[in-house]
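User: Protein folding is very new to me. Would you mind checking the protein record under this note? It all follows right here:
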Amino acid sequence: MRNYRSTPVYAVLTALLVFAIGPLVVLVFNALKTRREAATDAIGPPSSVRLQNFVDAFDQGNLGQTMLNSALITAGTVIGVCVIAGLAAYALTRLEIRGGGAVTAYLLVATAIPAQLFLVPLFFLWTNLGLYDSRFGLVVIYWALYSPLATLLLRSYFVGLPRDFEDAARIDGAGELRVLRDVVLPLARPGLTTVALVVGLFAWNEFFFAITFLQDDTKMPVVTSYLAFTQSFTRDWTLTSAAALIIVLPVLVLFIGLQRKFIDGLTASGLKG
């Protein structure tokens, strides 16, 4: 009777699994097909494996250069956001600043406002400041885009941290920056890991601002490589699928390696504060 009652649950879980894994399986199938086979059968498995698609996609999309650019942009974004969000979250949870509640509400609203609304004034501002067509200029934009969400996540995590060690450090004469560096940040490592992974994933996959604020082909991030597989009215889906697998591989490996810390940090930040 118990197994019978569990059947609908397993059926729903199986449907969700197919819904989640199905597109990835189709992506792998198309990456291994010829163009003719992908055009005639876009869902089924390939009749023969064509690994040359990965080589062609890597060369035609210039993935070596674009992945290096994305790595630099993502690293700069993660480091900057972690510093900005860490300092802001510490100030909101430990320094008891006046108007901290209003700042938190502002950050919450900022995460809901579409950043595309500020595209035109931001474009002219970046042009006047000499930051247009600059990877650093794009990184600064990402700092502004992702710092509010990262601050809210870290604030939720900081609220749940015990203050005994911080009070002991202050009694010993440590200043606030030293307390943050030597006490709070080591305890908040799972939360920082969560923020770094989430922000890194956003920066790695971001396309709109990258294609808008970068012009030089040697500075383009990896997501813009998909444009290399588009012709006038057609797209080579075999090379697109192969490039997608190459692009997602570093993120997948990184997530699997830090999966436990990511889940611990995300759970803690969601349940506390």
User: Anything to note?
Assistant: The chain has two domains: 1-50, 54-271. Residues 1-50 form one domain.
